[in-house]
TrEMBL record:
Domain YrdC-like positions: 14-200
Stored Pfam families: Sua5_yciO_yrdC (PF01300)
Lineage, opening ranks: Bacteria, Bacillati, Actinomycetota, Actinomycetes, Kitasatosporales
Name this polypeptide is given: Threonylcarbamoyl-AMP synthase
NCBIfam families for the chain: L-threonylcarbamoyladenylate synthase
PROSITE patterns recorded: YRDC
Gene source species: Streptomyces lomondensis
PANTHER family (alphabetical): DHBP SYNTHASE RIBB-LIKE ALPHA/BETA DOMAIN-CONTAINING PROTEIN, THREONYLCARBAMOYL-AMP SYNTHASE
Length: 206
């Protein structure tokens, strides 16, 4: 059964955030809210977490996982960013964007795209997610909570608890979150390529 965490949306309770972080460090897989929609998250090096996310979402090995980072300094540890791309990403974060970039050696090989050696990164604009990332001290390995055959991601904590209780270790609920997945921009080739249009405005990348 998944543990249900009721978190205040504006003033996350430090004790509860600490409990969630401790569970993630112990290899838990949790559903948590972001500024775009709910995501599945586990610790960076969790092979079990990756396989469980793949199973829940029925993903193949070409799927780009995302490292959800607290800030730009943390993001820079895991991807290579040249000056032009730096400015474009800096102007769009925090926000509802995922950027695909070449991975550094800090990113476990199992997270990288098998051929491109790339990974997704993002910095969310969400109080609860930011509190959790600050407590963890490292990125969350994440994937949008979009179930197979569904066109829209899940957005309600209680609904996620009911439906996925048997495959998750925790559900973090802080009320309403976004209802659209992130906009995905691929910078791995040097130029901005819009892979998915979502919650983030794409005009600056066109």
């Amino acid at each position: 059964m998944a543990k249900y965490y009721d978190v205040h949306p504006d003033n996350p309770q430090p004790r509860t955030i600490g409990q969630i972080a401790d569970s993630i460090r112990a290899d838990a897989l949790v559903a948590y809210p972001t500024d775009s929609c709910y995501a599945l998250g586990c610790r960076l090096g969790s092979r079990d977490g990756i396989e469980r996310i793949r199973t829940i979402r029925k993903l193949d090995d070409r799927h780009h996982f995302t490292l959800v980072c607290q800030d730009f300094a943390q993001l820079g540890q895991f991807v290579r960013v040249d000056n032009d791309v730096f400015r474009a990403i800096k102007a769009s974060t925090p926000g509802s964007y995922t950027f695909i970039l070449p991975a550094t050696k800090e990113v476990p090989r199992m997270l990288q795209h098998p051929k491109k050696k790339t990974v997704g990164v993002r910095i969310p604009d969400h109080v609860v997610t930011q509190a959790l990332l600050a407590e963890l001290g490292e990125p969350l390995l994440s994937s949008t909570l979009l179930l197979p055959g569904e066109e829209e991601p899940m957005t309600q904590g209680w609904e996620i608890k009911d439906l996925l209780d048997h495959v998750l270790d925790g559900v973090v609920d802080s009320g309403d979150c976004g209802t659209e997945p992130t906009t995905v921009i691929d910078f791995s080739g040097g130029e901005a390529e819009i892979v998915r249009r979502g919650a983030g405005d794409t005009s600056r990348f066109e």
